[in-house]
Amino acid sequence: MLLHIDSSADPTADSVTRQLTEGFARAWRTAHGAADHRHRDLLTDPVAPLGPAYTTLGRRVEREGFVPPAKVPALIETAAERHEWALTLPLITELLGADTLLLGVPMYNFSVPAPLKAWIDRVTFPGALTDPDTGESLLRHTRVIAVMARGGGYGPGTPREHFDFQTPYLRAYFGNLGVPPENLHLVAAELTRVDVLPQLAGLEGLAAASLDRARAELTELAAA
């Protein structure tokens, strides 16, 4: 299954990440069929930020030794905890059912959008993504493709390279979850605001080349 998640605050065709994720999804459906494509838009269907009952329940689960999701209901003590778990379990189940996770990740203030961070915080429930018998990651065979868009230039060797907290964050997060490096693909289109930011004037060719490279890489990944 392809789990396709968009997090851009821009619902229009101006969103570069939405353009690119839809292109990947279209190519993926052509190669694999449309039945197993699940789209979640965090703009129109946002994930609730964590509440106090989530952390209370999470700590209780940790003290029990990271029980699997099926055993969490037995540890719930309050209606608030039950509500938090009802918000969380469907997202975990959806993620664990995916062979490929496709994320649209525009750069907002040098990092990932808040709606995506809310999704990340909720699915990373203690023990939920780990095999309770072996301790292995349940995402060790999952392919993750993060489609990133940056208004400026943040690539290696650029003056703003050290402002990119998006790439290292995603690499650290999914690596810590047990996604192997060969299964994590971070695809970036840079200089996407070249049409509106005067300071980027003259970089139109570089912007177009970056977008073309991202499209080509995603087309190849979708067919794999």
Q: Tell me the strand order in the biggest sheet.
A: 2-1-3-4-5
Task: Supply the number of helical segments.
Answer: 6
Any idea how many domains? 1
Overall average residue pLDDT: 94
Q: Give a short account of the largest sheet.
A: 5 strands, parallel
One letter per element, helices H and strands E, the order comes to EHEHHEHEHEH
Spans of 5+ residues with little confidence (pLDDT < 50)?
none
Q: Percent helix among the residues?
A: 25-40%
Class by helix and strand content? alpha/beta
What is the chains' assembly state?
single chain
Number of beta strands: 5
Q: Please give the alpha-carbon distance between the first and last residues.
A: 14 Å
CATH class: Alpha Beta
CATH architecture descriptor name: 3-Layer(aba) Sandwich
In the CATH scheme, what's the topology name?
Rossmann fold
The CATH superfamily title: Flavodoxin domain
Overall spatial form:
globular
**Which percent band covers the strand fraction?**
5-15%
- The radius of gyration computed from the alpha-carbon positions, rounded to a whole number of angstroms, is 19 Å
